Amino acid sequence: MILHKCNKSGCNALISIKYKYCKKHINYYSRQYDHIRMNREATKEYRKFYQSKAWKELRSLKLSRNPLCEKCLKNNIYSLSTDVHHIKDVYNNYSYRLDYNNLQALCKPCHEKIHKLGYYPPL
């Protein structure tokens, strides 16, 4: 079996090439992203948007039209898209929230890498 290091910075755990993170860090970036997004008083309208029928339908349309991760495809890698990312973030550009051209279909690892870089305004 071929092994590589966990993608979490500083973690030296060896894992199968089928995975990007070890068991300890598999949900690390998702938890950080959700904590920031869901625990800010200023984000009530923002949070409601992601529960709206309009967003769910648009998200579903994007994933059905782009079943493969757009970022991976640029590197000739074929991975299923599971997340829809706003290119111009909705927090600062709320008018772009339902703009189909502002969406990118991504796999979870690519989406997490984008959010790991963090475009949220400081607390």
Q: State the helix count.
A: 5
Order of helices and strands: EEHHHHEEH
Low-confidence stretches: 119-123
Helix content: 25-40%
Shape: globular
Please state how the strands of the largest beta sheet are arranged side by side: 1-2
Strand content: 5-15%
> How many strands?
4
Family: Belongs to the HNH nuclease family.
Pfam family, one: HNH
Protein name: Putative HNH nuclease YajD
Organism: Lactobacillus jensenii
Descriptive notes:
It is a single chain. 36% of the residues lie in helices and 11% in strands. By secondary structure, the protein is α+β, with helices and mostly antiparallel strands. Helix 1 crosses helix 5 (108-117). The longest helix has 13 residues, at 53-65. It is globular. Mean pLDDT is 81; it is low at 119-123.
Give a brief description.
This protein is of the alpha+beta class. It has helices at 28-38, 44-49, 53-65, 70-73, 108-117, and strands at 3-5, 14-16, 83-86, 103-106.
What is the fold's blueprint, element by element?
Layout: E1 3-5, E2 14-16, H1 28-38, H2 44-49, H3 53-65, H4 70-73, E3 83-86, E4 103-106, H5 108-117
Helix pairs in contact: 1-5
List its traits:
123 residues; alpha+beta; two-stranded antiparallel ribbon; nuclease; endonuclease activity; HNH_nuc
